[in-house]
Amino acid sequence: MDMIYWPVIFCGIAIMLVFNPFRICYYYSRRWFLRVLWRLLCSGLYPVEFKDFFIGDMLCSQSYALGNISLFFCLYKNHWNDPVQCNSNHSRLMGFFTALPATWRFLQCIRRYRDSRMWFPHLANGGKYLFTILHYMTLSMWRIQNWNVSYKATFIAMASCNTVYCTLWDICMDWSLMDPSAKHPFLRKNIGFKHTWPYYLAMFVDPIIRADWFFYIVYASQLQHSALLSFVLALAEVLRRFMWCFFRMENEHIGNVGANRAYRDLPLPYHLPQKSPTPSELEAAEPLAIPHGQTVAEHDLERMGTMRRRISRPSTTESPVLLVRTITRVGRSIGGAHMYDYERRRGRDEEVELSGESDDDDEDGEDFFERTREMGPPESATVHT
């Protein structure tokens, strides 16, 4: 058998396994995955849940694999004759497929804005994916136009904006880091991992891999090196996304603990009795110092007047303090914006009524929180502060 048919056999077996209708080979997991892919293909038509945008972000790091879909069909269409005609210098479809995951995420951001009417973070997040789309579009146009200088300049501008935008979003929004007032400098108030060095390492590695497009500029005229480089950079992006997942999930858990959607300490189902002070403790308490000849009411009025004068008195340090408070408030808003990335899943009865179909995915792990909240809170999570 000719070796050119081995990829077809492999893809055929993979498709058969994924779409296998029998309850074998992780049937519920496969059905869950296919449903998420369908919701992703129809981005903008469904409310965005955590699984939707999370899988969408995973596919954003698979742009190299998706781009090779057009290469695969082009090679077999031409019977593997003249493969050069199927590379990125001649294929507009390759640029389309590489930009497709970012387009899905952009539509999800628009849907989140439609449902919540919150321009931040949803429209701001959509702007990030818009720059990602422009990044892949200009890269494809530059390659097709035989490395034209004007297209090269446009690609560098779009890629630079996309790198800065995505890096800041990864660190400040998805990971909620760069808090100057945190106990650990430029991390955050609460961290889930015991050691701090993984956070600093991730903050150092993420922008470096985000700027990998620079190598396309260096090896633009070397076709063979460019093909090998594309594979290496795609592998680096997959590893970066693997790292991103850990800190994104950790940050989501910290946010759920803070919003009481996950439990750090077990809430007691009863009130603790308050201990009343003994007479000896009351006698030991320091009495209120009131000047001789002045009643309690007169003393309170005098204290209120003093406080008003202090408040109304102009302070030379008011402007710096106000600036610091404003920066702190903005930082907290940015750090907690990731909690509005998606909608909580609807109740089972409501979802079945809206979709018109039964939902018996009790074994596929679609939403662990929704299925276990009736059983009581889980074990307390350890959060390092």
From TrEMBL:
<dbReference type="GO" id="GO:0016036">
    <property type="term" value="P:cellular response to phosphate starvation"/>
</dbReference>
<feature type="domain" description="EXS">
    <location>
        <begin position="85"/>
        <end position="280"/>
    </location>
</feature>
<keyword id="KW-1133">Transmembrane helix</keyword>
<dbReference type="GO" id="GO:0005886">
    <property type="term" value="C:plasma membrane"/>
</dbReference>
<keyword id="KW-0472">Membrane</keyword>
<dbReference type="GO" id="GO:0006817">
    <property type="term" value="P:phosphate ion transport"/>
</dbReference>
<protein>
    <submittedName>
        <fullName>EXS family-domain-containing protein</fullName>
    </submittedName>
</protein>
<feature type="transmembrane region" description="Helical">
    <location>
        <begin position="223"/>
        <end position="239"/>
    </location>
</feature>
<keyword id="KW-0812">Transmembrane</keyword>
<feature type="transmembrane region" description="Helical">
    <location>
        <begin position="6"/>
        <end position="29"/>
    </location>
</feature>
<feature type="region of interest" description="Disordered">
    <location>
        <begin position="345"/>
        <end position="385"/>
    </location>
</feature>
<dbReference type="GO" id="GO:0005794">
    <property type="term" value="C:Golgi apparatus"/>
</dbReference>
<dbReference type="Pfam" id="PF03124">
    <property type="entry name" value="EXS"/>
</dbReference>
<dbReference type="GO" id="GO:0000822">
    <property type="term" value="F:inositol hexakisphosphate binding"/>
</dbReference>
<feature type="compositionally biased region" description="Acidic residues">
    <location>
        <begin position="350"/>
        <end position="367"/>
    </location>
</feature>
<dbReference type="InterPro" id="IPR004342">
    <property type="entry name" value="EXS_C"/>
</dbReference>
